Amino acid sequence: MLDGCTPWSPEIAEEYRARGYWAGEDLSGLLRGWSRAHGGRTALVHGARRITYTELDRRVDRMAAGFRRHGITAGDRVVVQLPNVPEFVTVFFALLRAGAKPVFALLAHRADEIRHLCELSGAVGYVVPGEHRGFDHTALAAATMTRCPALRRVFVLDGPVAAEGFVALSDVDAEPAELTAPDPSDVAFFLLSGGTTALPKLIPRTHDDYAYQTRVTAELVGLTAADTYLAALPVEFNFAWGCPGVIGTLRAGGTVVLVDDADPDECFDAVERERVTVTSLVPTLVQLWLDAADAMPFDASSLRLIQVGGAPLQREIAERVEPAFGCRLQQVFGMAEGLISFTRDTDPHETLMATQGRPVSPGDEIRLVDEAGARVAPGGTGELLARGPYTLRGYYRAPEHNSRAFTPDGFYRTGDLARLTPEGDLVIEGRIKDVIIRAGNKISAAEVEGHLLSHPAVGRVAVVPVPDDFLGERICAYVQPVADAPTLQSLRDALHDLGIADYKLPDRLEIVDRLPLTGLGKVDKKLLAKDAAAKADALRKD
Ligand code: AMP
Fold this sequence. Notes:
binds adenosine monophosphate; nine-stranded mixed sheet; alpha/beta; globular; five-stranded parallel sheet; Rossmann fold
């Protein structure tokens, strides 16, 4: 396995193979098989573009050879930052076929996050969209190249490639070459952690574990070649990429429809036009869709399933999904680190509305523990720990963090608080990790605090979530100023100028003389979160 990653023990690996979870499938090899099985069928749709399985496989072969010609070799890491376009899929499989390892960045990431991802992964390549929604990614790439000497090549989807080291993605093309197939037990690609630390962590996903995750989730969703999946969420999210998402749909021989935006206008049109059967959304988006469907009815008769997850789903919203869209709702609780839990089609109404279901694999092991690490009594709430055939054993190049994030026997500490119903279904009750979930995006409080502290007017700072009816949570910063108090706008501008993604900028600012401390001398964030919630509530009532 790639250096810097934590492998499963040989005994556990053997067990996962013996039980049929790990089938020795390499993801790019799987594409070859899908192309043989479903050749002329449509694999990808984007606007007026339609790409068959045969075309996809052929393009991937040529692009893999092209990447090699441009100096990308086996084991190299390549940061991929693209919108929901067919090239995301092509680039992913082509890098895998060339033996390289894609590192998924969020499209919203800016200079600070990209530099960190490049440094941490030691990336030699970076794939960017050119200009996207008014932002010049090639300028960002050029700046990143000067700061990260290992970065040699930037591949541009569209736009100018005049600079040294820049290559148009359309020129990543060569006669297909005989390439050694990747080892299924090795790392295939990296997902980004929604983590708790000041600097985001990388999650290594192996061919074996991801192939299994997509197989087991596709089976549970009952995907077949007759299905059409709408990729409305950014595909770099694990939820949209592999739960079962894009990869699960392709392995079933179905069609993936990629849209640029999850907004109702574009998505309702795509559902009608392409007869979409399945999609996945975060709660904020499902709420947006529900409100829009009231105002502009559309033909949703093809939809059979909407998966909702990534953030807590309010009961009232859950209840509206089936009547509004005439399809099933599936609650999904999951994480890029691994563990996924689904409600099932056969579940009673109450389970569908009020729980996050059961882990998807019989190989998933979960435990609920108290602060001392002891198991909670049946029905009690505790921190959820997880271990299994698609749950990581360690973040990439993070030995110190790993010693805290995992138990000695390999369970991942999710930081989520959960309980189990008598029927064995998970109910997510909250979290102990210092993370804000805003419209499904995960924001590490420590990361934002670190950036805010670099502002000259900020003496001390604590960042907490504040409840929001639509976004779920917003970001509230409590600041103890040095002298003159900063304004919210000045802090947002400063963070923006530092190259921080916009979704992490604080939404609210509270100026305090002194941050409250706990008996142990730490900032009392629980008290601050309560205060923020009370203030938001008072504002709402005004
Ligand atoms: P990510 O890896 O970015 O998908 O984030 C995973 C985290 O999102 C989990 O550890 C939870 O904190 C949160 N999460 C995911 N699904 C749900 C859900 N259905 N309800 C509540 N929180 C969720």
